[in-house]
Give the backbone structure.
Amino acid sequence: MTEYSVSIVIVSRRRPTALRRALLAVSQLQYSTFEVIVVADPKGLSVCTELSFGTALKLIPFDIPNISAARNLGLSHAAGQIVAFIDDDAVPEPQWLNYLTQPASRPEVSAMCGFVRGRNGISFQWQAARVDADGVQHPISVDPEQITLLTAAKGEAIKTEGTNMAFRRDVLAALGGFDAAFQYFLDETDLNMRLAREGHVTAVVPLAEVHHGFAGNSFRHVNRVPRDLFDIGASWAVFHRKHVARARHVELWEVLRDAQRKRLLNHLIAGGLEPRDVPRLMARLDQGHAEGKHRSFGTAPLAAEPVTPFARFPSQARASILIATRPVRARRDRQVALDRVKRGDVVTILNLSPTALYHRTWFDDAGLWVQRGGLFGRSDRNTPLVQSTTRAARVEKERGRVANQRGFDQISA
């Protein structure tokens, strides 16, 4: 199987702790030919230099709240055949790039995207979707084990999710990359529409998984309650101007504005907002929409040659092991796991209590994959609430559930 050179671009601003964790996970990728480009503010760059592999990163200073401009800057330095994007509050599974790049062997494929798991590390936050002519997403059902090649219907697009997507560098450069008019929100959707217009094929790769945590930023709190809706309003105005007939702008905006108001009221009912927050946020939404009606937009082809040469990340072949434990042994086994991480292994520790508690999984700040829950509890939320099983059978079930993404070599029970 052909292995393509890949440039991973990570944009980060005001989230140095999340960035550090993302880079730790990237350092465990089981792929031999990739480089890592970090476009970040001073605090983010400082964290990078403190990592043991910091000198192997391409560090690009950028401290402006414009994700499209930041991604374009990263793209200008990308020297790989494929450019992959992941957010700073996300972590890739160790086999991520092996799966994500497989469709590149098909010359008609220009874009690739994988599945995204949410905060509990098990349920899917995003799988596959199309974008209709109004820019609205609609889920697509695809085989969860196989690559699906998709061509959009006329006027529509196949959606790629910003935290788990990749493109052929030459195609992305020829399209001008991302439109900087989309400072936040709809940036990849606009790109998807332009790709579709040119007839490019998008591959959905379910086994190429990323875990996305939704860290807080200047636009939303960590619980996803909005702080500011200005850029959402602005981006919708830009999107409508670029992709939707003028006669439909007012009608579509009324629908979208009503949806945002309902979202705010739901947060109010849930206690995430105070009554005074709703009119303030709606006013910001309207201000952004008004500004977006006049915002300059447009892209130009980017340089065919990268600004800097390929900087191969010093990846290494690592053993991937699963350590099964229980609460009474958890402290001891965690130390064993951490020692294996220090030796260079990819380590998953599965802590099963004698309960029916739901499972959660995450990649922690020490570089360890952790799964915790009850021996009789749910991991996959579609399974029965309580399961009858033995410890050995449950360990094997959970190993099999993530074996493709984790690439296990051995189990220690």
The chain has three domains: 6-212, 230-292, 320-412.
